[in-house]
Amino acid sequence: MNSLDIFRYSKDDPNEFDISKPKIDESEKNKYLSNLLSHSIKVSEEIFPNIAKSIDEIFAKLKLENNFNFFVTADHIEANASCSAMPFSNKPDIVVTSKLVELLTKEELKFVLAHEVAHYYYQHSMYPHHSTAASRIEKLNLLNLSRAAEISSDRIGFIACDNIQTSLRAMLKLASGLSDKHINFNFSAYLKQLDELESLGRNEGQLWSSHPNFLVRMKSLMWFEKSKEYNEFANHRQGTYTLSEIDKKIDGLINRLTGNELEVSNQEVYDRALLWASLKMYLVDKKFTKDEQEKFRQRFGEKKTMSTISFLKISNIDIIDQKIKEAFTEANLLLKNEKKKLIDELISIGSEINKSNITIVKYLADFANQLGDERTISLN
């Protein structure tokens, strides 16, 4: 593990999704590079000495090998930078616009360039795009992953320029599109806008955005600057919070702005799969005894228990199987940790019902298989 891996935001977790390493299409890579060489100018010490020096300082600070191509492209309208890297490419490309170079100081440019380097380092281009989502819950989870990737990359941008004021200035310039002469960098005043935004409650735009808004990113970076891990890495003063504590602060902030919609939606999907799968196990002997109903009530509550009992009076096992199929199709789009947790809880329930019943083990194996969980199921 490289030292930069510890700075990855906890919600930026590639292990939560089924991500396979793609093959590199060298012909497409060369075609793209040819297009860049035709329409943009490659950064070199001879042509762009200041930018080249900033790039060298970035990689020295991050303790990474520079295997990147950097390009400047003419765009006097949009201040932008992008990492156009194919996953695991040997020579990723980072393109910055002329407007971005004109807008930012040398140190602020370091923040943006290192942010793009981080996207490649963390292999964010491998993440499934939210446009491919098969359902609402999958789209919400993919958008949350995309926002988390930006938090991780901001941290590396900050480490590269090693100055919180510089990083925040770069963010404000990108958010406003204005240069130094128009901005008074009073960051506490800007963060009052975040307080106002929080007071309005759920923000629909933030819920469906692939990027956190700049206020959230600024606040997140200010917290990160106080982390024990960063300060130890930079040989600065002792930090105030652990990264785990800071990540919880960020989670709370984002949840307040999105109305906990993601957490609530995931929980609803989880609970439906848990209820129908549990019910099938309770009915393994085609009975739902008073004792079993009480256990069901303790786990799922009075309202769901009563509606389940009413449902059983007019239904059969085929309908329950259909409910399970529907619930698990949706649950299959949950994060991997949630799917594992679901199977673990079902195993616990199966053990409570009847440890020695082989049919329950078969049910559990089927539930796990539907969620891509290949472990061997046993009841202890």
Q: How are the SSEs placed, and which strands pair?
A:
Blueprint: H1 26-39, E1 41-42, H2 49-62, E2 69-73, E3 81-83, E4 93-97, H3 98-103, H4 106-121, H5 136-161, H6 164-176, H7 187-199, H8 204-207, H9 214-224, H10 228-233, H11 243-258, H12 261-282, H13 290-300, H14 302-314, H15 317-331, H16 336-353, H17 358-370
Parallel strand pairs: 2-4
Antiparallel strand pairs: 1-2, 3-4
Helix pairs in contact: 2-4, 2-5, 4-5, 4-6, 5-9, 5-12, 6-9, 7-9, 9-11, 12-15, 12-16, 13-14, 16-17
Shape: elongated
Q: Helix count?
A: 17
Can you tell me the residue ranges where pLDDT is under 50 for at least 5 consecutive residues?
A: none
**What is the SS-derived class?**
mainly alpha
Question: Approximately how much helix is present in the residues?
Answer: 55-70%
Number of domains: 2
Please list the strands of the largest sheet in the order they lie side by side. Answer: 1-2-4-3
Task: Give a description of the structure.
The protein has 380 residues and is mainly alpha-helical. It has 2 domains: 257 residues, no CATH class; 108 residues, no CATH class. The chain has a 4-stranded mixed β-sheet with strand order 1-2-4-3, with helices on both faces. Helix 4 packs across helix 5, helix 4 crosses helix 6 and helix 7 packs across helix 9. The longest helix is centred in the middle third of the chain and has 26 residues. It is elongated, with a radius of gyration of 25 Å.
